[in-house]
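Collaborator request, handled under Task 6.
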Amino acid sequence: MRTLWLTVACCATLSAATNAIFKMMRVPVPMRDGVRLSANVFLPSDRAHVPAILVRTPYGKGDDLVPNYKAFVDRGYAVIVQDVRGRYASEGIFEPLAQEPQDGDDTINWISRQPWSNGKVGMIGGSYLGIAQWKAALRNNPHLKAIFPVVSGDDDYRDRFYSTGGAIKLGHRLEWLAENVKARGYEPDFNKFIWHLPLRTADVAATGRVVESYRQAMDHPAFDPFWRAVSTAGHLDQMHVPVFAVGGWYDNYAESDLDAYAFLHKASGLSRILIGPWPHNMSIKFPEADFGPASSVPVRRLQLEWFDQWLMGKDSALLSTPPVQVFVMGSNQWREEREWPPAAARLKSFYLDSAGHANSLEGDGLLRERPSRRDAEDFYLYDPRNPVPTRGGAVCCNPQVFPWGPLDQRPVEKRDDVLVYSTPQFRSDLEVLGPVRVVLYVASSARDTDFTAKLVDVFPDGNARILSDGILRLRYRESLEHAVLANPGEVYEISVDAGVTANVFQKGHRLRLEVSSSNFPRFDRNPNTGGPIAEETRLWKANQTIFHGREHPSRIDLMVIPEGK
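C-alpha cells returned to the collaborator:
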C-alpha cells in the first residue's frame, strides 16, 4: 500500500477541448485517524485558486475524468473524485453507517489547504454519493458552501434498511450488497437469496460473507438510539448548507427528499427541490410508460447555476424562481410551488366499501366519497410462503433483476389475498399532489403481521398503473420506536404511509386502492409469529379482516389541487 502513495502521477494532459486539464491521480488524502483516502484531482489549466466540486463514491473513482464532470472543469472548477474509506484504492474498513460525516469533513478541510483551492467547496452525486453529501453537510464545515444530492434521501433507517412502517426493504438492501460487497468469486442469485431465512444471515446468502452494517441493522429493527445517532433527518436543525435536491416519483428516496426540503425551507429558505417521473436512474426510460419530452431536465445546467451562485458569487436567475419543481404525471407538466406540500392542496378522502367480497379484481370493492351506511368486512388469508409479488413501483436499484416504475398491477390484482377498491370513472380530472395515507380498521389472527396499501391509476383500457405504495408492521402501529404485539381478533385503527406522488387522474380514469399483507421482495415477509423477525424461520398463516363503513371509516387520504389552482 505504501508504494501506491509514492507513485502518484502529477502531470498535465490535453482534454478533448482546447483547454488543458491538469490531472493529479491517486492523491493520498489523510484522515484524522491516519487512514489515507485516494482521490483524483482535475484542475482547469488557466485558473489559480479555484473553487472545487467534490465527489465521494464507493463505486470506484475510475482512471480519468468522466464526461459528466468535465463541464465543471471547463467552467473553471477543480473536480475531486475520491474513493470512500475501505473502497477501491482507499485505505480503511468500509463502515457506511459511521464513516461519512468525519471523512467528508476531513476531505473538505484538505481541499481548502491546497495551493490551487480558494477554500470554497461544493458536492455532487447521486444515491450513496448523495448520502455522503448530506453526512458531510451535517458538520457545517465553513468551506462547504452548497450541495446537490440526487436520489439520496435523508435517513438510514427509513430509506435504506427499513420502511416508514418498520418492514425491511429486503430486495433493495440485499441486491445492493450483492452487487457491491460480495466476496470475490461469489455468484449471488437474487431469486434465491431474497427467500433466505433467517433474515439475520441473508447477507451471507447475498454476498458470500458477513456484512457488519447489515448485521447491525438486524440488531436494531426499531427506530432506536442507534438509528437516531446516524440519522441525517434527525439532525437537520443543525445544518445550514444550501441544498438543491433532485428525486424521482419512482425512486425509493422521494418521500425523504421532500420531507428534508420542507424542513430546511422553513428553517432557512436556502434550499430547492426537483422531483420528476424517474426511477433511481434518471436516464432510464420506462418500457410501459412515456411521460413525454417535458420529463427530461438539464440537471448539469442546474448544477452549474447552483454552484456559480454559491461558489463563484455569480447571481443566478435560478434563485428567483419558485424553489419546488415537481412533474405531474398524467398531465405530463411541471408545477412550480413555493412550499411542500403545495399551499393550494386540500385533503380529500375516498372510503372503502364492499358487500364483503372485495377480493381480487373480480370482487365488489368500491371507493366512495363518503363512508357507506352499511358496516361490512373483507377477509383474506395471508400466507408468507406465498406472498404477493412486487410489481414495479419505487424500488431500487437494478431493474434487470428487480423491475421498477409504473408497471401494470392487474397480474397482482388477480389474487384472492389482494383486496381491490376502485372509484367509478372520473367525470373530470382530479390532480393529486402530496403524501398518500391509508387509514384502515383491521384485525388479525396473528400477534404481529403486516398490512400493505397501493395507490393505482386505472386507465380506460384497464391498465392499472402503480403510483405509490407502503406497508405497516402491526407491532409498530403506535410508533417505530417501540414494538407492541397485537391481541388476536382485536380491531385496531392503523395508518399506512403509502408514499408520495403527483398525478392527474384524467377524465375517464379510476382511482384504485389495493390492500394486502405482503409486497415481496420490496418488503420482507412477516412470519406472523410475533417473534424477532430477523431470527425467525417459522412461517405461519394469518387470517386478516378489513372493516369499513360508518363505524370503521377505512379510507385513503390524498392531497388534491382544486381545479384552476
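The cover message to the collaborator said: "DSSP finds 13 helices and 22 strands in the chain. Residues 2-152+243-337 form a domain with the Rossmann fold fold (CATH 3.40.50.1820). Please let us know whether this matches your experimental observations."
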